[in-house]
From TrEMBL:
Domain of life from the UniProt record: Bacteria
Localization, UniProt: Cell membrane
Keyword Nucleus found: no
Native source organism of the sequence: Candidatus Geothrix skivensis
Primary location: membrane
Keywords: Cell membrane, Membrane, Signal, Transmembrane, Transmembrane helix
Name of this protein: Cache domain-containing protein
Pfam families: dCache_2
SMART domains: Cache_2 (SM01049)
GO cellular component terms given for this protein: plasma membrane
Residues making up the signal peptide according to the UniProt record: 1-20
Lineage, broadest ranks: Bacteria, Pseudomonadati, Acidobacteriota, Holophagae, Holophagales
Residue span, Single Cache domain: 2-104
Amino acid sequence: MRKTWAVLTLAALVALPLAAQTRDQAKAFVKQAVEFAKKNPKEKFLEEVTGAKGQFHFTKGQNSDLYIFVYDLEGKVLAHGVRRELVGINRWASKDPDGKPWIQDWTKLVKEKGSGWIEYKELNPAQNNKVMKKASFVELFSGMVIGAGIYE
């Protein structure tokens, strides 16, 4: 019994820093995207997110499977690092499988605090679009909600 408990405790201690590191990576990736947006025209930034060769576009394995997404404050997709077909679509009314209006929630969050974390469920492109729990860090810059998330 003691050995089992010790193994479980060790596993938990190893897993916690990995989750924190991944959240740190997502937040740092958003900060990197915001800095790029500050230094470049809006069109160049959005192409850097959506374009297949852009530094903020999804590439499995690179940046721990992270990608940037960009929405306006009314829920319209301005750029998406993995799902180009969403660009131009208003997703304001979208809800996760539990009925959570996550786009509305993150918009409220950035309007009130400027940035922060939000949790919801979403398709994971690295796991064959399986619905999984996701935590996204979002930041408001120049009328854009810029974010990246991790699947848990």
